[in-house]
Each structure stands twice: as C-alpha cells, then as structure tokens.
Amino acid sequence: MTKKLIEFKNVTKEYNLGDVSIKALDGVDFSIYEGEFVVILGASGAGKSTILNILGGMDLASSGEVFVNGNNITQYDDKKLTTFRAEEVGFVFQFYNLIPNLTALENVEFASEVCKDHLDAKEVLEKVGLGERKNNFPSQLSGGEQQRVAIARAVAKNPLLLLCDEPTGALDYKTGKSVLKLLQDLNKETQKCIVLITHNTAIAPIADRVIKVKSGKIDEVITNAETQSIEGIEW
Ligand SMILES: Nc1ncnc2c1ncn2[C@@H]1O[C@H](COP(=O)(O)OP(=O)(O)OP(=O)(O)O)[C@@H](O)[C@H]1O
C-alpha cells in the first residue's frame, strides 16, 4: 500500500484581531499519499493558503496535529521548523520571488546547496527547459520562464514534497498551462508529491485527488479514476 506522507488531524487555525476572532480552519482532516498530485480547491478566503502555510511550516496551527513523513511538525521547535522548511519542502508561489541579482542557475544553486541530498542545479534547469538560459538574470526572462526557474529551485532541493500556491496566478492562459504541464510531468516522472492550491475548478481533473475546502472545513475529497492531461483541458 502507498505510504501516507501527510496527515492533518483536526487542525484549527484562529486569527485574533483585537476583539474579533477569525476561524480560518475549523477541524480539518485529510491525508495525502506518497507520489500523489493533489489539488486543494476552494473559493477566496476558504482557507487554502492557511492549510499550505501550516503544511509548509510557515504558520502554526492553533490546535490539532500535522504529520509529514511520520513526524508531528506541530511539535517542532523553531530550529526544527527552519530545517524542515529548508530541506523537506519545495515552495512555488504565485510571484516567483527570484533573487534579481543572481542568474537563473545561481538562484537554483543558492536554494539547494544547503540541502543534504540536493540535485544538480544545471540538470534541473535543463529539465524545466531552461538549460540555454541559465546565465540570464530574472529580468531577462518572461514570467513563465521565471516560474520555471522557481520550480527548478524547489525541485533541486530534492524535497519530500512540492507546495504550489496558485503557481499560474500571474501568468497568461497559455503560459499557465505550460507551467501546469511541467508540474504534471515532474510528478509523473519523479513521483514527487505535489500539493497545488487553486480556485480554478477547471484544473481539478489533472490531479489524482481533489480536496475541496469551504469556510475553513473540508467540503469533499474527490478521487479522479483517471487523471487528465492539462493539454486536453480548456477554461
Ligand atoms: N494573517 C491573518 N490574519 C487574519 N486573518 C487571516 C490571516 N490570514 C488569513 N486570514 C483569514 O483566514 C481566512 C482564510 O484565508 P486563506 O488565505 O487561507 O484563504 P484562501 O482560500 O487561500 O483565499 P485566497 O484564494 O483568496 O488566497 C480568510 O477569512 C482570511 O481573511
């Protein structure tokens, strides 16, 4: 049986703003297995980013437990969380957050070289189709190319999982699709677990499973019997 990689157990998150308390997550339970491509889907404000931030060790749950690869990360101290973020999780955000005065290759190396089992930065850049552009600075690359560098940077760490927060949010339709295809291909080729959050229901069929979030709760979990290639999906 496939191994459970991620488990959320009754996770809550409350933000206290003066007298007002906002329940961003209200008893969230789900599991994600090794090698899965999972889409977390929900409307704006549903709690998607909060889930991803807690899963990536960037935010702390108010209560509940989060297991990653068998370890309860809610019990980690700051030092352990820093190592977890640096080595176990690859992040891809809507805005690529590349370092402007480093080349594409240097951006990838900078992030990965601190990791024990990192991959060869040049090879990963080639894999995302940017071998020829390795000496370019971010400002010399298009948005889609910058996002590919950001994906290479995340992949080169050889992390346990990739967390992608609206990775196509700043891209046009066609470029966004090619970035999703890259993620889908990477998942198929390397079996690296990918968790991608989006509000775009159209892309749900590319995932092995879809976790729907609504008002801080899990609304529904859908298993796609067959995943669809992004090329065949229009929206
Ligand atoms: N730092 C914060 N302080 C206060 N409230 C917050 C904070 N972060 C998130 N929230 C609230 O928690 C709820 C869930 O937010 P979250 O960002 O997780 O939603 P989302 O599904 O990712 O939305 P979007 O698609 O718009 O990014 C929202 O009501 C939001 O206003």
TrEMBL record:
SUPFAM superfamilies hit by this protein: P-loop containing nucleoside triphosphate hydrolases (SSF52540)
Residues of the ABC transporter domain: 6-234
GO cellular component, one term: membrane protein complex
Domain of life from the UniProt record: Bacteria
Species this chain originates from: Sporosarcina limicola
Keyword Metal-binding: no
GO molecular function: ATP binding; ATP hydrolysis activity; transmembrane transporter activity
Keyword annotations of the record: ATP-binding, Nucleotide-binding, Transport
Protein name in UniProt: ABC transport system ATP-binding protein
Family in the record: Belongs to the ABC transporter superfamily.
InterPro entries membership: AAA+_ATPase (IPR003593), ABC_transporter-like_ATP-bd (IPR003439), ABC_transporter-like_CS (IPR017871), MacB-like_ATP-bd (IPR017911), P-loop_NTPase (IPR027417)
Keyword Nucleotide-binding: yes
